[in-house]
Write a structure and sequence with these properties.
The complex is a heterodimer of chains A (295) and B (340).
Chain A lengths: L1 H17 L7 H30 L4 H9 L1 H34 L5 H13 L2 H12 L6 H6 L8 H27 L2 H8 L4 H30 L2 H7 L9 H10 L3 H37 L1
Chain B lengths: L2 H26 L3 E6 L4 H17 L6 E6 L2 H9 L6 E3 L4 H8 L13 H4 L2 E10 L9 H4 L6 E4 L5 H18 L2 H12 L5 E2 L2 H9 L6 E5 H11 L4 E4 L4 E6 L1 E3 L1 H7 L2 H12 L1 H9 L3 E2 L2 H6 L9 E2 L1 H5 L1 H10 L4 H9 L1
Parallel strand pairs in B: 1-2, 1-3, 5-6, 5-7, 9-12
Antiparallel strand pairs in B: 3-10, 4-7, 4-8, 4-9, 4-11
Helix pairs in contact in B: 2-13, 3-4, 7-8, 8-17
Classes of the chains: A mainly alpha (295), B alpha/beta (340).
Chain lengths: 295, 340
């Protein structure tokens, strides 16, 4: 949806700006621009700058030391592992859900959409507590897992489960509006021409949604790495074992190791910046492809 | 099937095997014990652990890793009750260990008798930390209840540190007014001066030192000394009130977990180490009051004599305190509601 909206916007923008009826006087224009830029600088650029400033305050060496310290390294590894598992799984679930919702009619469809949105509306802390209540020692399934020597909460699987839960809607939400807008004409044509279900999916549906899909994956990944609330509840905070990067940042900060905390925070910030660049690139590519397909 | 589908299958299989690896990882780990502790004991156990690992190896116990987990003490206790696999817990108040006796018998009922000194290897007291030069002239508990003073205390519901502060104020007021109604009124006035209730001791420290909120921080003696070290002695002054509480920091083996993981021996040895002269020495270095008289004498300069009472002496023991003060709707809740 983001891609199409963007495209429409760029199409209309020229006419809107050159039309005297929709133009404001100069001072209004510059005041509004000035206010927004100041706000942007104060609330987004400044904190971002402070993260890097604090991280490097004790010098480059202290920065590197803070990042290769065993507890920090293990938190980075765990964060990457959680993202590496939850993102592909959500990719599969997301495509499947979006496909079913956009291309088929069935009863309970709007209910399914609401269910997919659930993780957005539930506070992450509650999401974490759900897993503790289900898989904890006194939970519904917890005793069985503990009997069989499988640790879920307060261990890596719990962290992965919580991450999957909070990042669940990202990909499906990105795909559903686009797939609905595209309709199912092309799929129907492909079926009429004798393609199997898989072939239709691989050669027709997937190429049509690939940019939105990538966009969803990037957002999903960013959230998976940055998640704090839900993971904090199920983690147990065992140093070097169940601390993810956001949790490690909190611990380092609480131990008066401010530059170490900001060093790991800056890594997360860099990740966010890379995500932004990728996202912009993908939006640009998507607009290009759309334009080309129109001409 | 197209090659793309094959690839998808492969990556799916890979993620599944990774998931399986996570499950297996917990079973394969070498000998390690997990010490679940409260919020401000981080620095202490960072020093205790390597010393114990060396001592254990020297005794012929082999290699062992000690893992740490810290947070507000009651929150940590609830995590253990919910399945966090702690071999030992080192808390700052006994209710957080008693709850593990009640919930699933994780700890043996007579855990206080398993180690000397009520199973508390050290004590500390609740004291005041004020801004340099004591501009608001805060000398004793009465000053904390004065109007216009900002008092920073961690939440008594979630942290032992806050609970001791509350009880210290209560004990002081009880002595002064001679009755419970007077104590309730005094503590109510004191808590009306609290602008933020942080979840744990360290959170309260950050509020007071980093965010510059409040005129006085009530916290443990060791935390106050640590703040002076971290932020410079020229920024804060320590004030000892005329009467305060002795906070025993109890420890216990989480029997059920240790038995299952086969770590009973090393878990017990770990806690024994805390009571040994070497352990007591490290404890004293971190500004906790050691039990060993010889070690206490050696570090006497660090620990000014202060008049204290214990929960057992003045307030009838933890079980009574729990019921009268911290149960839902009990005195603490009434005071906080009245505050609003």
């Amino acid at each position: 949806m983001a891609a199409t909206a963007l495209h429409l916007h760029s199409d209309l923008a020229g006419r809107y700006e050159s039309n005297p009826a929709t133009r404001e006087s100069a001072w209004v224009k510059w005041t509004v621009i000035g206010v927004s830029l100041t706000f942007f600088a104060l609330f987004i650029l400044l904190p971002l700058f402070i993260v890097f400033y604090e991280a490097l305050r004790k010098g480059w060496e202290a920065y590197v030391v803070a990042l290769v310290e065993p507890d920090a390294l293990s938190s980075i590894k765990l964060t990457l592992l959680a993202a590496a598992i939850s993102v592909p799984l959500n990719l599969v679930f997301g495509i499947a859900a979006a496909w079913a919702i956009a291309k088929f009619e069935f009863r309970g469809k709007s209910f399914l959409i609401t269910l997919i949105d659930l993780p957005f509306s539930i506070s992450p802390v509650v999401a974490g507590l759900i897993y503790v209540l289900v898989f904890g020692r006194t939970g519904w399934l917890g005793p069985w897992f503990i009997e069989n020597d499988m640790k879920i909460v307060f261990a890596v699987p719990g962290i992965i489960l919580a991450t999957i839960f909070v990042t669940f809607p990202f990909i499906a939400r990105e795909l559903i509006p686009l797939m609905e807008a595209q309709g199912r004409d092309e799929e129907e044509a492909s079926t009429v021409l004798g393609a199997s279900g898989w072939q239709t999916f691989w050669y027709v549906t997937l190429p049509n949604i690939k940019w939105a899909l990538l966009y969803g994956v990037i957002l999903c990944n960013a959230r998976a790495m940055g998640e704090f609330g839900a993971v904090s509840v199920v983690s147990g905070h065992i140093r070097g074992e169940t601390n993810t990067m956001p949790l490690h940042i909190e611990i380092a900060y609480n131990e008066y190791k401010f530059s170490a905390a900001f060093a790991v925070a800056s890594l997360l910030a860099i990740l966010a910046l890379v995500t932004l660049v990728l996202k912009t690139f993908i939006e640009w590519r998507a607009t290009q492809t759309l334009k080309r397909s129109k001409t | 099937m197209t090659p793309n589908a094959g690839q998808l299958k492969k990556s799916l299989r890979r993620s599944l095997s990774l998931l399986a690896l996570c499950f297996a990882g917990s079973a394969l780990a070498q000998t390690s014990i997990l010490n679940v502790s409260y919020d401000v004991s981080r620095e202490l156990y960072k020093d205790i652990n390597p010393a114990f690992v060396a001592a254990w190896k020297k005794q012929g116990g082999g290699d062992v890793t000690v893992n740490q987990s810290h947070g507000g003490s009651s929150k940590q206790a609830m995590s253990v009750a919910a399945g966090l696999d702690a071999d030992v817990i080192t808390m700052n108040q006994s209710p957080d260990i008693d709850i593990l006796v009640e919930r699933g018998g994780l700890v043996v009922a007579d855990w206080r008798k398993q180690f000397p000194h009520n199973a508390a290897p050290y004590t500390t007291t609740s004291i005041f930390l004020v801004r340099k030069g004591n501009p608001k002239q805060i000398k004793d508990w009465d000053d904390l209840a004065r109007p216009g003073i900002g008092v920073i205390v961690p939440n008594p519901k979630t942290s032992g540190n806050g609970r001791y502060t509350y009880l210290a104020a209560w004990g002081y007021a009880l002595d002064k007014t001679g009755n419970e109604a007077g104590a309730k009124d005094f503590v109510k006035r004191l808590f009306a001066n609290v602008p933020v209730l942080d979840g744990g001791g360290r959170g309260a420290t950050t509020t007071f030192t980093q965010r510059d909120i409040g005129d006085v921080l009530v916290t443990f003696e060791n935390e106050a000394n640590l703040i002076a070290q971290e932020f410079g002695a020229d920024k804060f002054d320590v004030v000892y009130p005329s009467l305060t509480i002795e906070a025993e920091a109890p420890v216990a083996v989480v029997q059920k977990v240790a038995a299952k993981r086969g770590t009973e021996k090393v878990a017990k040895a770990y806690l024994d180490f805390l009571f040994s002269p070497a352990g007591q020495e490290i404890i004293a270095k971190h500004d906790f009051r050691p039990r060993d008289p010889a070690v206490l004498k050696k570090y006497a300069a660090k620990f000014p004599k202060v008049k204290t009472f214990t929960v057992d002496q003045k307030l009838g023991g933890w079980a009574a305190v729990q019921k009268a003060h911290f149960a839902d709707g009990a005195l603490y809740d009434q005071i906080i509601v009245l505050k609003k």
